[in-house]
Specification:
Nuclear Transport Factor 2, Chain: A, globular, SnoaL-like domain-containing protein, NTF2-like_dom_sf, 8 helices, 5-stranded mixed beta sheet
């Protein structure tokens, strides 16, 4: 029989909920029913849907989407890819997800857009980095910016005043992001970006092992990470109001750098209470490393993810003659 969508056409946020609910149904379905359950998930996507899996090079289409759906549907019992949170976007939506098995898990962010019929015509997902480079990331960016010829703006050392300051707690999440990244980042405003954050903000930059807790920690974090010539450029913001997701890319000395997906959530007072920020890896792993990443994300709790990744890297280097002992 032909597969039908899991839900009637609607908002992007409902499409995201249907996507994860459908993936779960497909995974727990009896083996004989799994193909039809997976087909129902694929039916949530438009025929011309684009999938930006930021662990891969380039954009993917229907064949890749089908492969991912079938892979998740075939996960073993105990493994799960689950939706953690989703904004209230209508035409586009940001979301948080987690893949886990046993005591090991990996977090992620995502962004989806729907067409006029409510089908997903664009999906972007990004998992947290396995290796937490922390402060070394900022140090590297300072060196990289200098090596690429200096500031070339877009973020100047001396900033002009924001022409039309916004009031914290008075604008929806998508406008908060637009204001902070398109105005406050490039200019000066009383209170800066942290004026829009709740006193109990949890700011999760996933290149670090622990989140920043509270406005004081977040402000210190922002100040240490400020680099003239480096900026985050927003590519697309969901239209969520209580929360939103957005896609971005970095500009380093005027040149395009890594991309990322970030999620902002507002509290009852209209201030940002939670942020999850994930940048893509600048190195797209060859097959062995990609396999190691997937396996490490879903392996048992006794396995060190770093050890798995290092072992796979050593195997690749040995096989290609790129290790330290190679010719």
């Amino acid at each position: 029989s032909s597969a039908a969508p899991l839900a009637t056409p609607g908002s992007a946020s409902s499409a995201v909920r249907d996507l994860f609910a459908g993936l779960r149904r497909a995974q727990v379905a009896p083996a004989e029913s799994r193909p039809e359950a997976a087909a129902r998930v694929r039916a949530l996507f438009a025929a011309d849907a684009i999938y930006d899996d930021l662990t891969q090079e380039g954009s993917q289409g229907a064949d890749y989407i089908a492969k991912v759906v079938d892979t998740i549907a075939g996960l073993p019992p105990g493994a799960e890819v689950a939706l953690q949170d989703v904004d209230d976007g209508s035409s586009s939506s940001g979301f948080l997800w987690r893949a886990s098995e046993g005591g090991v898990s990996v977090k992620g962010t995502g962004f989806a857009r729907v067409d006029g019929t409510g089908k997903i015509n664009y999906l972007c997902t990004l998992p947290e980095p396995l290796l937490k480079t922390g402060e070394a990331t900022t140090a590297f960016l300072r060196v990289a910016t200098a090596a690429m010829g200096g500031p070339k703006e877009p973020v100047p050392e001396v900033r002009a005043r924001v022409k039309s300051p916004k009031m914290p707690g008075k604008i929806p999440a998508n406008e908060v992001v637009r204001y902070l990244y398109q105005e406050v980042q490039y200019a000066d405003v009383e209170g800066g970006a942290v004026a829009f954050f709740s006193p109990d903000i949890v700011y999760e930059d996933t290149v670090y092992t622990a989140p920043r807790l509270g406005k004081a920690e977040v402000e210190s974090f922002f100040n240490r990470g400020s680099i003239p010539g480096f900026a985050f450029v927003v590519d697309e913001i969901s239209d969520g109001r209580s929360a939103c997701g957005f896609r971005w890319h970095a500009e380093i000395a005027g040149q395009m750098g890594p991309r990322g997906v970030t999620f902002y959530k507002l509290g009852a007072e209209g201030l940002v209470t939670y942020v999850r920020d994930i940048p893509e890896s600048t190195m797209k792993p060859p097959p062995f490393l990609r396999l190691a990443y997937t396996w490490a994300s879903l392996a048992g709790p006794l396995v060190s993810r770093r050890a798995v990744l290092a072992s796979a890297a050593a195997n690749v280097a040995e096989g290609t003659g790129q290790g330290q002992g190679g010719p």
